[in-house]
Amino acid sequence: xxxxxxxxxxxxxxxxxxxxxxxxxxxxxxxxxxxxxxxxxxxxxxxxxxxxxxxxxxxxxxxxxxxxxxxxxxxxxxxxxxxxxxxxxxxxxxxxxx
Length: 98
Fold this sequence. Notes:
- The protein is an alpha+beta fold and 98 residues long.
- It has a single domain, classed as RelE-like (YaeB-like fold).
- Helices cover 36% and strands 31% of the residues.
- It has helices at 8-24, 28-45; strands at 3-6, 51-54, 57-61, 67-74, 77-85.
- It has a five-stranded mixed sheet.
- Strand 2 (51-54) and strand 3 (57-61) form a beta hairpin.
- The radius of gyration is 13 Å and the shape is globular.
């Protein structure tokens, strides 16, 4: 199984959302984190499972929370480019790609 790496801005997004949900209800932040890591594990096991977006980038949708994960396989790693709320303007994360 391949390793994964968060882009620093994607990691910041992820941490901010965990804190936001945990502030709403005790345990909800951890539930959010669990859902995101479930998606990441799915992408690590089946890298082509996500919806193709552009030039090697794929996306997967969370089930319980309105979020998408944008990722790409590069240098034998799964790069997480964004942990994006579904209401956010698409493509804001594109400048993060190496």
